[in-house]
Specification:
Layout: H1 4-36, H2 40-54, H3 57-80, H4 86-117, H5 123-157
């Protein structure tokens, strides 16, 4: 059984990855669906405002903190190599680091950056908006599933 400081590390990892799963779930299930119903100029402006707000400490601390925790859990697992739960701990870390953090860097953030460079109301923004929503939502669904799975697998490591 995992105990001591490693137990606390995994519990905090569960909390961080679970919180991010909830944020991404909310974005997928109602925020983006609501924005998609707006005229493109309003949707682009609103999404750019959301992306700027996401860069604040409240979200970034949890998002980046979960990545740091996942990395620490993986490193400690390799160093300690516990008899129990090593597969779950490494899988939980990989799910978050690659399926959430990595995917954000290669899929969602580049789309956000492109959207931010467009002039609200310009023809290019109007054409790109539905493409952005469709592609961004797909990758956000993947991030949602990966972060929820990470939390679940970390939880299973404690049982």
């Amino acid at each position: 059984m995992i105990d001591g400081p490693f137990f606390v590390l995994v519990v905090v990892g569960i909390l961080g990855t679970g919180l991010i799963a909830g944020v991404f779930f909310g974005l997928s299930t109602f925020v983006m669906r609501g924005l998609a119903t707006l005229p493109p100029a309003q949707g682009v402006a609103a999404m750019n405002a959301i992306n700027l707000a996401a860069m604040r400490p409240a979200f970034m601390t949890v998002f980046m903190g979960a990545a740091v925790l996942s990395s620490l859990i993986a490193v400690v697992t390799f160093v300690v190599w516990p008899d129990e739960a090593k597969v779950e701990l490494l899988l939980g870390s990989a799910l978050y680091l690659f399926g959430v953090f990595g995917l954000t860097l290669v899929a969602n953030a580049p789309r956000d950056d492109r959207l931010a460079r467009l002039t609200v109301g310009a023809p290019e923004a109007t054409v790109y908006w539905p493409v952005y929503v469709r592609e961004w939502m797909f990758w956000n669904h993947v991030r949602t599933a990966a972060s929820a799975a990470s939390a679940l697998v970390y939880l299973l490591a404690l049982t």
